[in-house]
Design goal:
Blueprint: H1 2-13, H2 22-25, H3 29-34, H4 48-55, H5 60-76, E1 84-91, E2 94-95, E3 104-106, E4 111-114, E5 117-121, E6 127-131, H6 140-157, E7 162-167, H7 174-182, E8 186-191, H8 195-200, H9 202-215, E9 219-228, E10 237-246, E11 249-257, H10 264-272, H11 276-287, H12 299-321, H13 332-337, E12 377-380, E13 390-393, H14 398-401, H15 406-409, H16 418-423
Parallel strand pairs: 1-7, 7-8
Antiparallel strand pairs: 1-5, 2-4, 3-4, 5-6, 8-11, 9-10, 10-11, 12-13
């Protein structure tokens, strides 16, 4: 069982998210060695039918226990209980291409899909929980249930840690906010605007709009806060507004929170806008580790797949953090080919804890520093293919450094400059 799980997780981490890929990878010497078997004389790894049977084997109780393993893994990643943690919660589109159970048609995305919930630790980028759910917007009762179970698990080991839940307007439900207030949980959620909210900040918005016109600025931003109570709320809550005046008009965004410290600007710009990093983490989880490959018919099997892909995320995250100090690793794809590692980086450029691995580099590098281009590989990542990825070797370094070699003389004339066409005419 352990060898099957290990082989499956290693394959996902290396970019082979399909179980079909193991039909060829099961004899690969590197994979066999990674799974503790001899490269040549060791027994081959599991095949695709074995992996498929394993994914459909667990029952609901087993899959729930696997989900708690992810939470415990995150809790154990801290040497001591932190004073506070910020948990980013959001759902993401997972398009299906069949009749998988729990999949629904979502009019907003115009797709038949799942909308799984992802929860990340904002300070470290580590995944906390992944929950597969139907393709519809979560209700307040559903969100409250997920958070109640998660917080209970965290409180069992960290009873004094202060917890901040941060999410967009999907999660700013009356049931969720009331539960957080009753259980000493801080929250910061987006809030959809309406006429009542706009009327409450109309004075500040008019001042910002007037000053922008008098100062002839293209953009002028300001902040305001007020107390607001919706019809479904039992009490007034602190609401902060970001007001931006441009030549096209006003743009006002609202957030609601129970944090009593900090200005409206700090609440919105510093605390709330930081949740944009969670969007990058979800994008990386889906695009580079293919966590949206939920093609099993059973939702229990698809939840098990989501756990396996999150385990591969943990593996790549751990590899990036275990790199030596002079090496900076960026993303799973760059770790696979080595293009995210730079041996010439100074020791002081090691990523800090707040901006650790999931942040992508500004310019992805295709050739590693100090290495020949011939040993760097490019994977053609066909997301919907069923076989192993095609691996193409780059040309030798002489093709990049010696313009007078035969490799360049054979280049078609349409790729040559005018001077090269005169000295090296195309025989055709």
């Amino acid at each position: 069982m352990a060898d099957i799980l290990r082989a499956r997780i290693f394959a996902i981490a290396c970019g082979y998210e399909d179980a079909n890929d193991l039909d060829r990878l099961r004899t690969d010497p590197a994979f066999k060695l990674a799974c503790g078997r001899l490269p040549d004389s060791g027994i081959d790894l599991c095949s695709q039918p074995t992996c498929s049977r394993l994914e459909n084997l667990p029952d609901l109780r087993t899959v729930i226990r696997l989900g708690w393993v992810l939470v415990d893994l995150w809790l154990s990643s801290y040497a001591a209980p932190p004073k506070s943690v910020t948990l980013d919660i959001d759902d993401t589109l997972d398009v299906v291409h069949g009749h998988q159970q729990l999949s629904l048609f979502n009019a907003h995305y115009d797709e038949r899909c799942f909308l799984p919930i992802h929860i990340y630790d904002a300070a470290t980028g580590r995944p906390v929980a992944m929950i597969l759910r139907p393709g519809k917007t979560p209700t307040g009762k559903e969100i409250r249930g997920h958070l109640r179970r998660l917080v209970r698990r965290i409180r069992a080991r960290w009873p004094t840690t202060r917890i901040l839940i941060r999410g967009d307007s999907h999660y700013g439900r009356a049931q969720v906010m009331a539960w957080c207030e009753n259980n000493a949980i801080d929250y910061l959620f987006g809030l959809p605007g309406n006429k009542v909210l706009q009327r409450l900040v109309d004075e500040s918005a008019d001042d910002i709009r007037t000053r922008r016109a008098l100062e002839r600025k293209s953009v002028l931003r300001g902040y305001a806060e007020t107390r607001y109570k919706a019809k479904s709320w039992k009490a007034e809550r602190r609401t902060c507004a970001r007001i931006e005046a441009t030549t096209l008009g006003l743009d006002i965004r609202f957030v609601v929170t129970n944090l009593d410290k900090g200005s409206a600007e700090h609440i919105y710009d510093v605390i709330y806008c930081a949740r944009g990093q969670a969007e990058n983490l979800i994008k990386m989880h889906k695009s580079q580790l293919a966590s949206d490959r939920t093609s099993c018919r059973s939702p229990i099997a698809n939840q098990g797949r989501l756990v396996l892909h999150t385990a591969a995320y943990w593996l790549m995250l751990t590899c990036a953090r275990r790199c030596p100090r002079p090496i900076i690793c960026a993303t799973p794809s760059s770790l696979r080919c080595g293009s995210g590692c730079s041996s010439s980086a100074p020791a002081s450029s090691k990523p800090s804890r707040a901006s650790a691995w999931p942040s992508p580099p500004p310019v992805p590098r295709q050739v590693c520093s100090g290495r020949s281009p011939a040993i760097c590989y490019r994977q053609d990542h066909d997301r919907r293919g069923s076989g192993p990825r095609r691996t193409t070797q780059l040309p030798p370094s002489s093709a990049f450094t010696s313009p007078d070699t035969a490799a360049v003389k054979k280049t078609p004339s349409r790729h040559l400059s005018a001077a090269q066409r005169q000295t090296n005419p195309d025989p055709s």
